[in-house]
Design brief:
8 helices, mainly alpha, 67% helix, 0% strand, globular
Length: 129
């Protein structure tokens, strides 16, 4: 059984993001390697930030994040859109936010991961239906 990786200052930022994203989605870097790398030796390269550019898009899609977020840790949404989104919070969203703030950081990360999965499932149903 492989040991669970934790973010580290020794790792490249992109690898630390992969660890955190895998935790949020209740998967592991090892499982990601099984899908995207031809050998376990790739983990050493990934820790150093040497991820094959051809894999980045697939990994980002698999983890349901943008390539930009995976590489830089930042989303590039216009500030105007972000402000509009915040101003349009409805009662249910406010209630959810109140509960969310009561959770620990770890519980918040898990909840975000589950919400992303539910949103993706809704998109798939919408596209099929």
């Amino acid at each position: 059984m492989s040991k669970k990786l934790k973010p580290s200052e020794e790792y490249a930022p992109i690898f630390n993001r992969l660890i955190k994203l895998c935790e949020m989605r209740e998967t592991s870097v090892s499982q990601l390697l099984d899908v995207f790398a031809s050998s376990r030796s790739a983990v050493g390269a990934w820790k150093n930030g040497n991820i094959n550019a051809n894999l980045i898009e697939g990994i980002a899609k698999h983890l349901n994040v943008s390539v930009e977020y995976l590489i830089t840790g930042k989303e590039n949404r216009p500030v105007i859109q972000q402000k509009r989104d915040i101003q349009q919070i409805n009662g249910r969203e406010k209630e959810l936010l109140e509960y969310f703030r009561e959770l620990s950081d770890e519980e918040q990360i898990k909840l975000i991961g589950r919400a992303e999965v539910l949103a993706e499932q809704a998109k798939l149903k919408e596209n099929v239906g």
